[in-house]
Write a structure and sequence with these properties.
208 residues, mainly alpha, Glutaredoxin, Glutathione S-transferase Yfyf (Class Pi), Chain A, domain 2, two-stranded antiparallel sheet, 9 helices, 55% helix, globular
Length: 208
């Protein structure tokens, strides 16, 4: 989802190939043997191909080509310090929150008795974001940034685990921030489902 968000924001066009992970096409495994999604394959000027198989790296690829909304903060800080700070914040979330989130989701799915423990572990990070959103409209400032798009899919997952609890939780600014995205035309376009890709099918050109 976050790779698509960045591609949409960068106004790039890609050929979209939706697949089922339980039945991975050989073309996908040939491109990236580790077999995870998303995968981006693009041709270089010398006709060789590059493969990017990490969502954050795909976001950076897209936005470094075109960043009309200055999501990388490059036009305001020529030394790149702003981007490094953003990547540091995302790394903390990716390496800590995502692990706790998976445990929280599993505890809910399998009715485990440690649900509260894992929810509270997630809340350590959620509380930090809530404090930031009290100060400005987006996570790190009053302008949307790479951090917002990178964290959005995982905060959306967190909100869906215990829906009724989330709606009453003391995170009004987080809820408003998330709702603004979920109700946006961008989100609808990013979440549109397409027919599964089968080799030889018509191409689906997306973005731009």
């Amino acid at each position: 989802m976050r790779a698509r968000l960045a591609i949409f924001k960068s106004k790039q066009q890609v050929e979209l190939r939706d697949i089922v992970l339980s039945d991975k096409p050989q073309a996908m495994l040939n491109a990236s043997p580790k077999g995870t999604v998303p995968i981006l394959v693009f041709e270089n000027n010398d006709k060789t191909f590059n493969v990017i198989d990490e969502s954050l790296d795909i976001m950076l690829w897209a936005l470094q080509i075109n960043d009309p909304d200055n999501l990388l903060g490059q036009s305001s800080m020529s030394n790149g310090e702003s981007l490094q700070n953003m990547l540091s914040s995302i790394a903390t979330f990716d390496h800590e929150f995502k692990i706790d989130l998976e445990k929280y989701k599993c505890a809910k799915r399998y009715h485990e008795d440690n649900l509260l423990e894992y929810r509270q572990a997630c809340e350590v990070h959620i509380q930090t974001i809530e404090k930031q959103l009290k100060q400005h409209a987006y996570i790190i400032s009053n302008k949307e940034s790479l951090v917002d798009l990178a964290l959005l899919p995982f905060i959306r997952q967190f909100a869906r685990v215990e829906r009724q609890w989330y709606l009453q939780a003391p995170y009004p600014n987080l809820r408003q921030w998330l709702n603004n995205y979920l109700q946006s035309p961008m989100f609808s376009k990013v979440m549109t489902k397409y027919p599964l890709w089968i080799d030889g099918d018509n191409r689906v050109i997306w973005g731009g």
